[in-house]
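Question (not urgent): is this output format expected?
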Amino acid sequence: MTDTDVVRSAPLVAIYADESCLGNGREGDNAGGAGGLIETARHPYGEPMRRDYWVAEPATTNNRMALRSAIEGVRLAARLGPGRRCRVVFTSDSRYLIDGMTSWVYDWMRRGWRRKTGAIENLALWQELVEEARPHRIAWRWVRGHAGHPQNEYANILATRAAARQDASEGAVESGFDDWLIAERAQGRVTIAPDPLPDPATFRPARELPDIQTESLF
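Got this back:
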C-alpha cells in the first residue's frame, strides 16, 4: 500500500474548535483557553462518536489560543488513523487560523519562515501546527462565530470554561455535546441542526504542506 493509499483510506474526522482570551487586548496578563469537539463515525452504524478537548494558558492572546486549538485537535485526531494519518475537516471561526493554514504558511515556508515585512507572530506555534498537520489531509473551514452553529457554539463553551478555570482535559474525553444540545434547544438558544459527519465524496483538502524546514524550526 502506498503512502497515498494510506491517506485515502484514513478515517474522515470533523474537528470544531474555538478559542478564548479573557480581557484580550488589555494591559497585563490575560488568561486564555482553547477547546474543541472531535467527531468520527461510530463503526459500523455511522453515528457520530464525539470527544472533547481543551487547554489553557495564564497569559496569552486569542490568536495564540486559536493555533493551540488546532495543534491539540490534529494531534488527538492522529491517534484515530492507520499510520497516524487522517482526513480532517477542521472548522473554526478564527480567520487568523484558517487564512494562515490555507495561504500564509506556504509563502512563509517558501521564504524560509519569513514574511516580506516584519516578524511572523507566534512563529513557533505556526511551525508546530505545520508539523502536526503535514501527515494528514485537512480541509480548513471558516464559520462565523456566535451565529448559532451548534458545534462552534459548543467549542466556544469549552474554550471559555478552560480560560476561566485554567485547566486542561489532558487528551480527548467523553463529550458533553449531546446533553448540552438538548438543554440549549429546550431554552430556544440553538435552533440550527448540527453539521452531519463529513461526506468522503465531497471532501476537498487544502494543498499539501511542503516539507521545508529551517534551523529555526527546532
